[in-house]
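Let us work through a complete example step by step.
Step 1: write down the sequence.
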Amino acid sequence: MDLWSTSIVFRAGHRIRLQVTSGDFPRWDPNLNTGEPEEGAATARVARQQVFHDPARLSRLVLPVAPPA
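Step 2: predict the structure and record it as C-alpha coordinates.
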Protein backbone atom coordinates (compact mmCIF):
# COMPACT_ATOMS: atom_id res chain seq x y z
CA MET A 1 0.00 0.00 0.00
CA ASP A 2 1.63 3.23 -1.14
CA LEU A 3 1.04 6.07 1.30
CA TRP A 4 2.80 8.65 -0.90
CA SER A 5 5.97 10.47 0.05
CA THR A 6 5.70 12.26 3.34
CA SER A 7 7.89 13.19 6.26
CA ILE A 8 6.95 14.04 9.83
CA VAL A 9 9.24 14.71 12.77
CA PHE A 10 8.24 12.94 15.97
CA ARG A 11 9.87 14.39 19.03
CA ALA A 12 10.49 12.40 22.21
CA GLY A 13 7.17 11.74 23.92
CA HIS A 14 5.06 12.15 20.78
CA ARG A 15 2.56 9.43 19.89
CA ILE A 16 1.10 8.37 16.58
CA ARG A 17 -2.20 6.75 15.72
CA LEU A 18 -2.88 4.38 12.84
CA GLN A 19 -6.42 4.67 11.51
CA VAL A 20 -7.59 1.82 9.25
CA THR A 21 -10.38 2.84 6.86
CA SER A 22 -11.92 1.58 3.66
CA GLY A 23 -12.19 4.93 1.97
CA ASP A 24 -10.80 8.43 1.74
CA PHE A 25 -13.59 10.69 0.49
CA PRO A 26 -13.16 13.28 -1.06
CA ARG A 27 -9.70 12.19 -2.20
CA TRP A 28 -11.32 9.21 -3.96
CA ASP A 29 -14.92 8.50 -4.83
CA PRO A 30 -16.79 6.57 -2.12
CA ASN A 31 -16.66 2.78 -2.38
CA LEU A 32 -20.14 1.34 -1.80
CA ASN A 33 -18.62 -2.14 -1.14
CA THR A 34 -21.11 -3.95 -3.38
CA GLY A 35 -19.02 -4.65 -6.49
CA GLU A 36 -21.64 -2.89 -8.63
CA PRO A 37 -20.44 -0.45 -11.29
CA GLU A 38 -20.12 2.95 -9.60
CA GLU A 39 -22.26 4.81 -12.14
CA GLY A 40 -25.31 2.60 -11.50
CA ALA A 41 -24.84 1.64 -7.86
CA ALA A 42 -27.92 2.21 -5.73
CA THR A 43 -27.10 0.35 -2.51
CA ALA A 44 -24.23 0.47 -0.06
CA ARG A 45 -22.80 -2.06 2.39
CA VAL A 46 -20.88 -1.36 5.57
CA ALA A 47 -17.22 -2.32 5.23
CA ARG A 48 -15.48 -4.04 8.11
CA GLN A 49 -11.70 -4.19 8.52
CA GLN A 50 -9.73 -6.59 10.65
CA VAL A 51 -6.30 -6.03 12.10
CA PHE A 52 -4.84 -9.32 13.26
CA HIS A 53 -2.40 -9.44 16.15
CA ASP A 54 -1.90 -13.08 16.97
CA PRO A 55 1.23 -15.19 16.23
CA ALA A 56 -0.30 -16.76 13.11
CA ARG A 57 -1.38 -13.48 11.52
CA LEU A 58 0.89 -10.62 12.45
CA SER A 59 0.05 -7.06 11.47
CA ARG A 60 2.63 -4.33 11.56
CA LEU A 61 3.34 -0.75 10.64
CA VAL A 62 6.91 -0.10 9.48
CA LEU A 63 8.11 3.48 9.80
CA PRO A 64 11.51 4.15 8.28
CA VAL A 65 13.76 6.45 10.29
CA ALA A 66 15.66 9.07 8.30
CA PRO A 67 18.93 10.49 9.58
CA PRO A 68 18.73 14.05 10.98
CA ALA A 69 19.13 16.76 8.35
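Step 3: interpret the result. The CA atoms of residues 7 and 64 lie 10 Å apart.
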